[in-house]
Design goal:
mainly alpha; two-stranded antiparallel ribbon; 2 strands; globular
Length: about 300
């Protein structure tokens, strides 16, 4: 891999993570006027619009095993992941939820150890403990909050649980992209997940509303779909073809950073001292875990 391609790969992952950080902000706006299921479905319907041309320009023959992997990844990475994540967001704040997402790089590193045959150095296990402590502090600050519409322990824990689903989605996509073009995997994966959502949401959440939704909410949904879904997935999947997933993980730190700043400065949310401390520990641990001087923290066994 040339240095130029590595640099572009890291830049693509960084931009994807920054745009993902806007997802909770746009989602919170839409959730003021509709249910979690409706919001997630509309987000992916908009996202699929941006990917439809790729279904015709990047036709691909998948083996039966690849179809199974693609459908499992689509099920986990879209309906399960996003319904769980945004159910958590409905119960907490954008800034709290974004900080909880900060444990994703650590979860990704652990996944590389368990499923990708990599090994973690002692510093990695220390970083894991620090990150866990940070998440616990954020959760503790949620349980002590007395604000109306403030953070809750349940909401924060649901978002933390969604990072485990995100790990499986990333690893499954990484495996598929070893054999297929990243554009193909993105287009087919998001479309398949959206079709599952279109069946799932009406049965469990009811028919999504069409009338009575403000232009502000529609704009937030369109931004969530086209920027935070289509653009991010294309950038991230391409980036993973250029750099290792464990090294790209550090750039996921931009997601909680952007998300928490949007929550504090645009939505006027409040972060207590424990939440700031916990978020700092999570970001520090994730940065330490994925950068360790000239040698990668995660090495092949």
């Amino acid at each position: 891999m040339t240095p130029r391609h590595r640099t572009l790969g890291f830049l693509a992952c960084a931009l994807a993570s920054s745009l993902w950080g806007c997802g909770f902000f746009f989602g919170k706006i839409a959730l003021e006027e509709m249910s979690v299921g409706s919001m997630v479905l509309y987000r992916f319907l908009f996202g699929t619009i941006g990917l439809l041309p790729l279904l015709f320009t990047h036709r691909q023959r998948f083996s039966a095993a690849d179809w199974r992997t693609l459908l499992i990844a689509s099920l986990l990475g879209i309906p399960v992941l996003f319904l769980l994540e945004f159910r958590g967001l409905a119960l907490t704040t954008v800034s709290h939820g974004s900080l909880m997402i900060g444990i994703t790089p650590v979860v990704l590193a652990i996944g590389a150890v368990l499923f990708a045959g990599e090994r973690m150095h002692a510093l990695g296990w220390i970083a894991l403990c620090v990150s866990t402590l940070g998440a616990a502090l954020i959760a503790l600050s949620s349980s002590h909050s007395t604000e109306a519409h403030g953070p809750t322990l349940t909401g924060d824990l649901l978002i933390a649980a969604s990072t485990l689903i995100a790990l499986l989605w990333i690893l499954l996509n990484k495996r598929l992209m070893e054999r297929h073009n990243h554009l193909t995997i993105t287009a087919y994966g998001v479309t398949a997940g959206t079709l599952i959502l279109a069946l799932w949401v009406p049965l469990t959440w009811g028919i999504p509303p069409v009338h009575g939704i403000s232009l502000k909410a529609w704009g937030a949904l369109a931004a969530s779909g086209l920027l935070c879904t289509t653009t991010t997935t294309l950038l991230w999947n391409w980036g993973l073809t250029q750099v290792p997933a464990s090294q790209a993980g550090v750039l996921l730190n931009l997601e909680p950073l952007i998300g928490s700043l949007l929550g504090v400065f645009l939505l006027q949310e409040h972060l207590g001292a424990l939440a700031w401390l916990g978020g700092g520990l999570i970001l520090t641990a994730a940065f330490t875990l994925t950068t360790r001087g000239p040698e990668p923290l995660l090495a092949e066994a």
